[in-house]
């Protein structure tokens, strides 16, 4: 599960307390600082990461082990930071000898789990040598925090591949929310975590929303066809995504915001043309399609860069990005269905054999061969819509 650490070292002092409070309230996974006393004030619900600046070892008194007493004024080592409740001690490494020393210290440390101290490493990747060293670190340390000088994500891809079987966690330094979103998607699995320096509490909340951005499991319904009719010429939209669809995947499309039919992608063989596993011949331009965050859009609004939900026959979903939408005039076919509760679900699509919808179990159905009584897969929405957003008001669609 992806996570974020909030780096306090460069947060403007006037914003520091607000950022700390927000990080705790928003349930950020960890807080990073070079001030052990500051970390000692934080609750145990957050991982407290103490940075040893410049690779200089932190005094033993700076890290509280299980059973240690906190330093008090007047104690022999009272000038050293108390370090109460430090969970992770982060030290910089740039050579194999330094990494070996860190790994040995980690193995020798009596605090292995349960929120106690873990010895981990930070590395600045600037060339092939440090890249290979970061791969080695990711294999032996509990946490390996990496800053990549290269703005491309190729070095990150290399580390992710090298550390595929590692038990430790990879944390990537990012310089903004946009980069955080990219880092989490590299090689599909993405970095385990990110290290982020917010400028304000608002950026912490924005990061929390990014971390929570998941797509839901939908409960699909069986729809029964009650009529099919040719309605003449109109404009239909093909949606070309930047992803391959699975054979039982498509997108949800409907004439009414209250119900959708699962339209099949072109992953299955067609006569006279190759398969296009990135495409859904979706429907007439007036139709609704369901996207992330329970938001709908008209097909006429969908275009390059839009995000939609790819939906499987079992209700699983994932976010897909639209590469382009292609609108063309074609003969149209109206398919009217009803759900078990009697709700009407309508879909208007291109009147052509190669346009397909999905039935129960992922059965592929050509729209021109549908008959009264055939069963389709669909989704029944509980919400009415205004500008694509759910709203609790009276709305009748016919």
Folded structure, characterized:
- There is one protein chain.
- The chain is of the alpha/beta class.
- It folds into two domains: 3-211, TIM Barrel (Alpha-Beta Barrel); 221-389, Endonuclease - Pi-scei, Chain A, domain 1 (Beta Complex).
- Helices cover 18% and strands 38% of the residues.
- The chain has seven helices and 22 strands.
- It has helices at 13-25, 36-40, 96-108, 128-140, 154-162, 177-183, 201-211, and strands spanning 3-7, 30-33, 47-52, 88-92, 118-125, 143-148, 169-174, 193-196, 221-241, 249-256, 259-266, 276-284, 288-291, 295-298, 307-312, 317-338, 344-350, 356-359, 363-366, 375-380, 384-386, 389-391.
- The strands form four sheets. Strands 9, 10, 11, 12, 13, 14, 15, 16, 17 and 20 form a ten-stranded antiparallel sheet that branches.
- Helix 2 links the parallel strand 2 and strand 3.
- Helix 1 runs parallel beside helix 7.
- The protein is elongated.
- Residues 55-83 and 111-115 have low confidence and may be disordered.
CATH architecture of the largest domain, by name, is: Alpha-Beta Barrel
What Rg is obtained from the alpha carbons, in whole angstroms?
27 Å
Largest sheet: 10 strands, antiparallel
Q: Give the name of the CATH superfamily of the largest domain.
A: Aldolase class I
Number of strands: 22
Give helix % range.
Answer: 10-25%
Q: Span between N and C termini? A: 44 Å
């Amino acid at each position: 599960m992806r996570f974020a650490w909030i780096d306090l070292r460069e947060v403007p002092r006037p914003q520091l307390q607000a950022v700390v409070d927000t990080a705790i309230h928003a349930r950020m996974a960890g807080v990073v600082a070079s001030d052990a006393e500051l970390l000692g004030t934080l609750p145990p619900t957050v991982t407290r990461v103490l940075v040893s600046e410049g690779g200089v070892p932190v005094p033993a008194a700076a890290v509280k082990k299980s059973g240690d007493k906190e330093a008090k004024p007047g104690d022999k080592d009272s000038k050293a930071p108390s370090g109460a409740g430090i969970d992770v001690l982060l030290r910089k490494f740039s050579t194999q000898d330094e990494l070996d020393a860190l790994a040995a210290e980690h193995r020798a440390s009596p605090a292995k789990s349960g929120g106690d101290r873990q010895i981990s490493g930070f590395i600045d990747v600037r060339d092939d040598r440090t890249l290979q060293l970061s791969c080695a670190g990711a294999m032996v340390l509990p946490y390996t925090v990496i800053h990549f000088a290269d703005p491309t994500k190729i070095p990150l891809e290399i580390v992710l591949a090298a550390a595929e079987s590692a038990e430790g966690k990879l944390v990537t330094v990012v310089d903004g929310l946009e980069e955080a979103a990219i880092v989490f998607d590299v090689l599909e699995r993405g970095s385990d975590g990110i290290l982020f320096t917010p400028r304000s509490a608002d950026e912490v909340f924005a990061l929390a929303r990014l971390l929570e951005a998941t797509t839901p499991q939908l409960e699909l319904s069986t729809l029964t066809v009650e009529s099919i009719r040719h309605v003449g010429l109109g404009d239909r939209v093909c949606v070309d995504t930047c992803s391959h669809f699975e054979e039982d995947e498509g997108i949800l499309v409907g004439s009414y915001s209250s119900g959708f039919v699962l339209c099949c992608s072109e992953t299955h063989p067609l006569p006279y043309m190759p398969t296009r596993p990135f495409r859904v011949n979706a429907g007439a331009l007036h139709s609704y399609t369901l996207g992330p965050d329970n938001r709908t859009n008209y097909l006429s609004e969908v275009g390059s860069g839009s995000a939609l939900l790819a939906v499987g026959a079992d209700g699983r979903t994932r976010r897909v990005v639209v590469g382009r939408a292609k609108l063309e005039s074609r003969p149209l076919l109206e398919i009217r269905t009803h759900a078990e509760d009697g709700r009407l679900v309508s879909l208007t699509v291109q009147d052509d054999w190669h346009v397909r919808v999905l039935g129960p179990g992922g059965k592929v159905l050509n729209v021109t061969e549908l008959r009264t009584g055939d069963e389709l897969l669909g989704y029944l929405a509980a919400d009415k819509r205004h500008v694509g957003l759910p709203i609790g008001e009276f709305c009748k669609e016919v």
